[in-house]
Structure formats: C-alpha cells, structure tokens
Amino acid sequence: MADVKTLPGAASAPYLRDADAYLARAYRPFLPAMIAKAEGSLLYDLDGNRYIDFVGGVGCLNVGHSHPKVVAAVIDQAKRFTHTDYTMFPYVPLVELAKRLAPKTRIPNAKGLFFNSGAEAVENAVKIARWATGRPGVIAFDGAFHGRTYMAMSLTSKLHPYKAHYGPYAPEVYRLPYPSATHGPRLDEFRRFLDRAAVTWFDPAQIACVIAEPIQGEGGYIVPVEGFFPLLREFCDQHGILLIADEIQTGYGRTGRFFAMEHEGVVPDLMTCGKSIAAGLPLSAVFGRAEIMDAPAENTLGGTYVGNPVAASAGLAVLDVMEQEGLVARAEEVGQRIRAKLLELMRECRCIGDVRGRGAMLAVEFVRDRATMEPNPEMVARVLRLAMERGLLLMKCGVYNNAIRFLCPLNIPWDVLDEGLDIFAAVVREAKEREAHAEV
After folding, report:
1. pLDDT digit string (tens) for 231-273?
2. Which CATH number among 3.90.1150.10, 3.30.1600.10, 3.40.50.150, 3.40.640.10 corresponds to the domain 68-324?
C-alpha cells in the first residue's frame, strides 16, 4: 500500500488558509491539498503527492484529465475566439456538436439546446415540457438528484446538504418512490402506488413531465427494478405526459452504453446530458423530439454563456476520443474488473451490504448488518479518509451517505486501476478492524 500522506503539505497549507479566509464555508473542499496538475487518471498536488482519481471530477472526466486531443481543441478554439453569444453571432462547433449528439440520444427527429450546467439543463427541460404541454406539474422520485438551482433543488430528494434551510421550494412537484432492485419497492408495489397517487395526490391531466435518472447517482447508484421505465413510458403515453431521462451522470458511456436508457429499451421524450460532455468545461444540453423542443417561442430560452465555443469544441474532441478509443465498450471491461474486486471484498467483509451498478457506474454500500441493511455512514467516512491518505480519491453517495461510488476515467490504465482497487480493499479491511476495536 502507498505511504500515508501528511496533509496538507507545506506548499498547500498557505493556500488552504487563504481559502478559509476568503471563500465561504459552503464551498469547502474534501481534499486538504491544492492540485497542481492532472494527467489521465492521476492528480498531483503542490507538494508532489500523487493521487489515483476514482472521482473523475464527479463524473466529468470519462476521457480522463487533460486529454491531449481535448486540450488541443480548447487551445485552437481559444486562439480563434472565446465568446460571442450564439444567439447574437453563431458559430460552427455548437451546430456540429448538436448534429453529432442528436442521433446518440435515439430520440426520433431530435433537436438540442445547450446550457452551462446539469441543473440548468434540468431547469430548461422542465420549462420546455411545461410550454409544450401547457401543464404545471412535475413528478420526480425519492433519492433523486437533479441539481441545486431552485427548480432542480425542488426535484432533488436529499435534504442534507442540498435543501435544508433553502425553502420554500418550487410548487407543483410530486414525489414517488424509486423502485430499487436492492431495497424495493417491487414493480407491482410501485404500480399500485402510482395508480393510487394518480387518484389521491395529483391529476395526471395537469402533469407536464416525469423526470427520472436511469440509475440514481447521488441517491446511491440505485439501479431500478426491471420494467420500471417501460411502466413509466406506458403511464406517460396514457396521460399525455412527457418523459425526461436525466442522463447527466449516467451518459457518455459510463454504464457501457452511450446513454443508459439504452439498457431499458425505452426512448424518452426529452433527455438531459452534461458532466463528461466537455471534459469538465461548463456545458450541458437538453435534447428532445423536434415538436417539443420547438414549442417555446424564439429567444425564450438561453443565457449569455450557454453553449460557449470553447466548451463546444472540447465537446467535439470528447466525442472523437470516445469513438477512437472505444470507451463505451471499455466501460464494460472497467466495470467487470471493479465489480469482481468488490464482490471478492464483499464475501470477506460483512460490512458491505451490496455491490451494484452497470458498466463502470458502480457503488458499494456499507451497512452495520446485512440482515437489516442498516446504513453505516461512519464506515464510509473512515474509508474515504484512509484512502485519501494513501493516495486514492473516492466519493460517497446515498441518501444516508453510506455508499462509495466509482467514477474513474474510462481509459484508466489497467495497472493504475488495479493499484487503486488494491488500496481500496486494504483500507476497507483496516477500517473494519478499527470499527471492531472501537466496539470492544
């Protein structure tokens, strides 16, 4: 295992003191060190410490850090121009990106709009759905995460740290259980709940859209029960409701398909995408059927920076890298390697209650007792800290903060992946020992 790092180091420490003095605490980082450079799947701080990155900019770096082709595209575009506002003076990269992305959504006759962040994409998808249907209501799900702006936050299900003290929230949002393959409810139970809710809670004729993640991200990498999305599609078609797939974290090859809805055999009416779309540059998108996307009047959607040319050029380079390096297929191989290691560890450690996900979108859930599946967030906090000290960066998720997600770049070298997995296994064993001694 890698040597334990003393953090922060001497070079990072003064900058962290300045951060405490000049940046609000709502923006506090996890790693007590300042990053100096990043390459592929590795980060280096100002003190020269090396870290294996299993966080990937929170899912933004499926093609890795500072990919040479993305960097070259950014530099080339920045030399030509960095901004005009597309609605004033248009440019080619944004049109080309829409042209290449539209068929990947599998939405017939798809058109797109670009924004800055995942939350903006969600906000605008809801606005488009409301305009197209003339209805106000939105259905979201327990455990959902859709962003932190007011409509997106209202759709988000996790109270702490995202929603507490920030109310009141946007109205006309109705929440249903997300039928988890691990925790339930079963599909038949969800169907009964949905049928009853449509009588006692909301009028389907007033619902504009249902928004759902193909796999819940912040909610704990919750994979839905088989048949969930076909049931949603049937319900939406029956009542003239639009189905929005939030692919911001699941998209761009993470699950072994370009978009995760391909696993479900269901085509949504609208789709949001972001994160890895431009290798961490601010860019997101909404795609949908042309008649829906064209429903809002001219210039009723947009923003000063949306779809900026530098990010759009990065987006084109990301697509090139994914295609040339076969990263969608490689996600399956990466996922198989991670899953095998996690299942081996689960057989040894009863503190692991579940290993789940698709492709390279995987999580491990920590519990106190497999029989009750009682969450164990303290174990997760201990594992994250120990891993960080040994040069592996990980990130938690789950409504109870008791799961660890894996978001390494899809082109991570095998030796680096194996090194990271070995560190993870070692620190889980160490954390388990520490917990056992604390209980004595």
Report:
1. 999 999 999 999 999 999 999 999 999 999 999 999 999 999 9
2. 3.40.640.10
